[in-house]
Amino acid sequence: MRYLFLLLPFLLGCSHQPKPGSHAFYYWKFEEQGISDSDTALIKQLQVAHFYIHYFDVDWSEARGMPVPRASRYYYYNIVPFLKGSYCPVVFITNRTFDIMPEDSVEWLAGRISDKIRDMTAHFEESAAGADYQYGTNWQVEKPKIIARRVSLHKEIQIDCDWTPGTKDKYFHFLRAFKALNKENELSATIRLYPYKYYRKMGVPPVDRGMLMCYNMDRIDKLSTINSIFDKKVLSSYLVGTHYSLPLDVAFPIFGWYAWFRGDKFKGIVDEGDVLIKSGVIDSKGLISRDTTLDGRFFREGDLVRKEQPDSATLKSAIALAMRKVPDYRHIAFYHWDAASIAAYENIIQKTFADY
């Protein structure tokens, strides 16, 4: 027994040891301006070893009667610093794509997305090696003259989709078809909290691993919601008594927005809510005090603008809760890479990376 007591401090000291290379961020921007030197320095300072890079979205086009890629315009010089270490392409597919798309088109979609990811990755890698060009939003990517090539540092591809019981079969069919076309890559999928807890109803995606998304956990369009992005009580209710059959990584939020309501009707997300606060048109309860216009949108006196952003102290304790539930993670990721957001949560980020 005395040997157990001698070993106890050692065993306790070995718990929660940070995993080398586990620090990760999502990069979800499409901007023309190049990355700044401060971003490059911040990557080094935070010892970020892995980036999940948003390649493009896929949504159903009513006009074309088919799924099409959206928001896929990148400027290569803007992301080269994020290609220095390991990275993972991420493709977001809307749930309505699988709701509308016929079953016999699923494998076609898997092929088109696979081809576009390969083209984009080749271009990114060539850009990192010295090429300089850009491309548009079609499935086909115009092939530039290859002036350099290097070995790709991405071994994983991630699919992001908020599937439902009604779209589960088509989405899982897509994942199996996509995996068959990308055998050289590990395939991961984002897992929201609802399908994590209710996996018997929602199914477990046929992928190699999942990313548990510890945010966007409640309905933004409900007036009674406290914070749709992050609520520790809601998180705790989802992390009880579940054994998920996929190995998981974990992602946490460092972003915010404002939910806009007129009466009990949700009007949209307002990213510029701080401007309204600084201009004095929002009172302490979040009510618009006078008619005003911001970025072409008219806000009426009496409208409610609800601020939604993780509180630092609550986020810190929630991270500890989630990490106890997912001890065998490979990456801890924050969403998303933004200098202002990182500055606001830098202490939490550094503490998390130091502890886990």
TrEMBL record:
It comes from the Bacteria. This is Glycosyltransferase WbsX.
